[in-house]
Write a structure and sequence with these properties.
By secondary structure, this protein is mainly α. It has helices at about 1-10, 15-30, 35-50, 70-85; strands spanning about 55-60, 65-70. It is built from four helices and two strands. A two-stranded antiparallel sheet has the order 1-2. Helix 1 (about 1-10) runs antiparallel to helix 2, helix 2 (about 15-30) runs parallel beside helix 4 (about 70-85) and helix 3 runs antiparallel to helix 4. The radius of gyration is 13 Å and the shape is globular.
């Protein structure tokens, strides 16, 4: 499952990559998957370095209205912080250096 989700981080759809990042972050935090944590962190970090991660993520809400969810790189960074507990530059995604 982790390799497929890692591949989805490079999906053409930012919303798909965003969802994959959220699932990987949840798996990385889980006490049931400590043996996969390094692999998950590496996948999120690699995706974060990809220039395509700087795109906006949009999704339809329950009322079928377009909602802006933020930038993909911010979701990737949040996932890394949630797993590792470490934050660069004070902990805000916007304050890190690219």
């Amino acid at each position: 499952m982790v390799p497929a989700l890692a591949a989805a981080l490079r999906d053409e759809s930012a919303a798909t990559a965003y969802a994959a990042a959220q699932v990987l972050a949840a798996l990385g935090r889980s006490p049931e998957t400590p043996h996969r944590r390094a692999e998950i962190v590496a996948a999120l970090a690699t995706a974060l370095r990809d220039p395509r991660s700087r795109r906006g993520v949009y999704a339809l809400d329950a009322e079928q209205k377009i909602q802006y969810l933020g930038r993909l790189d911010e979701a990737l960074y949040r996932g890394l912080v949630q797993i590792t507990g470490a934050a660069a530059g004070g902990g805000e995604a916007g304050s890190r250096t690219a």
